Amino acid sequence: MEWLIIVGIVMFVIAPVMWLKPSPEQKRHSLLRSQITRQGVTIKMEKPPLHHFKGTMPAYRWHYPQDDPGPDFLLVRDSNASEALAPFHAGWRWRIAPLRPLPDSATVHLKTLLERLPQDALVVQSTQYTLTLWWWESQTAERFTTYVPVFEHLRDALRGYADRPITKPLGFKEQPGSREAKP
Prior knowledge:
This is Preprotein translocase subunit YajC. It comes from Halomonas casei. The chain is an alpha+beta fold. It has one domain (25-165). The protein contains 5 helices and 9 strands; from the N terminus they run H-H-E-E-E-E-E-H-E-E-H-H-E-E. The strands form 2 sheets. It has a 7-stranded antiparallel β-sheet with strand order 1-2-7-6-3-5-4. A hairpin with a 3-residue loop joins strand 6 (121-126) and strand 7 (130-135). Helix 3 (104-116) packs antiparallel against helix 5.
């Protein structure tokens, strides 16, 4: 009977430690996020731009240069989109279409990316500041690393195609062939 009490006390002490131990899925997500963050991608848990969605999901962001902002658009996978939205490519629909046509190089990179993304990738969004992928992190770091160059090429093809022009301070004129403002 004493040994039963001792085993009970030991289990009582060990139980909280086991709760603190990360699950295999948490370990995989941690490894994925640390490896992708080292490649210059910002990762945050936020509410995605989906209707009737409660909670947060991972948002992987590639930043546009400050002086070359990107266009605004929002693509949603068919599984999370209304039939009223305009279809784009490979099971994706425009929730917010770009105001002007995307350059051909960007369209090619975007279509290639949409064909390759895993099924748990739900939203691809571009704002003037970032290109963002909203997904549930179903893949390993090694597999997701193959998408990073495609996202970087897409970001580079979209940079400078902002819907709103950058406002510069009065009294500064841009010299032809230069990106820097001169007084």
